[in-house]
Amino acid sequence: MEDLNGTIEPSCLQDPPLAIDVINQLDMFGMVLYSILTFMATVSLVVYLEECVYVYKKVPSPKKMTIIWVNGAAPVIAIMSCLGMWIPRSTMFTDMTSNSYFAVVIYKFLKLMLEEIGGEEAFLKHSGKKTLRISTGPCCCCCPCLPRVPVTRRTIFLLKLGSLQYAIMKTALSIFSIVLWTNGNFDLSDLEITGAAIWINPFIGVLTITALWPVSIMFMHLVKTLQSLKIIPKYAMYQLVLVLSQLQAAIISILSLDGTIACSPPFSSIARGSMLSQQLMIVEMFIVTLVTRLFYRRTYEPLVLDQHESDNGLNAKMIQSPAIGENAA
Predict the structure, then answer these.
(1) Is 264 helix (H, G, I), strand (E, B) or coil?
(2) Domain harbouring 77, CATH code
(3) pLDDT (tens digit, 9 = 90+) per residue, 63-83?
C-alpha cells in the first residue's frame, strides 16, 4: 500500500499478525465469517470421525486403515487451514502438515485400489497375463510410443515405491524447511538463486509428479474392474483435493508475491494471500468431505471379478487340446 509520497505502509512489510491482533481487528462481518468457517472445519472433523467409527466396525483389516487414511485428506486440510486462519504465524507449520499428510494419501490411494481388488495376490491372479500402459499423465501422457510393461511382483513393487518415496521425502523436506525457516534461511518470497526455497520447491514438484504417475497407471488399468465400487468418483475427489491443496495454493501464493493481492493492514500481501487461500480451502474441503462420505460410507462386500476373461482362457485351452492330440497321433 503506497501513500501520496510513494512510501510503503510499514504494516505491509511486517510479519503476519499475532492471533490476538487478528481477533481485535475483526468487525461484525469478520466475526461472522470466521465463526462460519470454524464451524465448517469442525463439522468436517466430526463427519470424518463418525465415518472412521463406521469403517473401523464394518471393514476388515488392512483395508479399513487405508480407507481411514484416504478419507482424512480433506478434514485434515480443513482443520490445518482453520488453525492457520486464526493463527497466521503458524502457516508454515499448518501448510507443511497438510502437504505431508496428503503425500501419504497419494501412496494410500494406490494401496486402496490394490486392496479393493483383493490384495496383491488377487491382482496378480487377475492381471498376471496382462500389461500396464505407462503412457499416462502426469509424466508420459504425450508419449504413446512407450512400451507396455508386464504385470509382475517387481512391477507392483516399483509402482508402490514410486508413490512411497514422495510420502517419505515430502515429510523429510518439510521438517528440513521448517528448521531452515526458524534460522531465517527459508523464505517463500526469496527467489534468489542463493535462497533455499528456489531449490527445495522445484525438487518437491518433481517428486510429486513421480508419485502421481504410478497412481495414474494403476487407475487406468483397474478403472473398469473397480467401476462398480465407484472408483471413478473416488479418484476424481482425490484429484480435486490435489488440485485445490497444491495448484490453487500455488497460484494464490504467486499472486501475493507479485502484489496482485493487495496489502490490507495488519496483513501484508503474502499474509493476506495465505489467509484467503486458507478460507477458500476450508469451504472447499468441507464440501469434499461431505461428498466423499457418500462414496466410502457404504456396505463393503467382496468384489466379484468378471469371469469373462477366465472363461475365454478356459475355452482357449479346450481348443488347443484336440490340436495337441492330433499332433501326437
Answers:
(1) strand
(2) 1.20.1070
(3) 889 999 999 999 999 999 999
Give φ, ψ of 291 to 5 degrees: -70, -45
Question: CA-to-CA distance for 211 and 99, rounded, in angstroms?
Answer: 13
> What residues form DSSP beta bridges with 149?
132
pLDDT of the residue at 3: 44
Is 258 inside any structural domain? yes
326 belongs to a structural domain: no
d(CA 73, CA 76): 5
Give which of 304, 227, 298, 237 is closest to 55, Cα–Cα.
298
Range of the domain at 84: 12-299
Report CA 111 to chain centroid distance, whole Å.
14
Q: How many CB atoms lie within 10 A of CB 112?
A: 24
pLDDT digits (tens, 9 = 90+) for 141-176: 666 677 888 888 898 999 999 999 999 999 999 899
Whether omega for the bond prior to residue 147 falls within 30 degrees of 0, making it cis, is: no
Residues 286, 36: contact at Cβ < 8 Å?
A: no
Is residue 194 assigned to a domain? Answer: yes
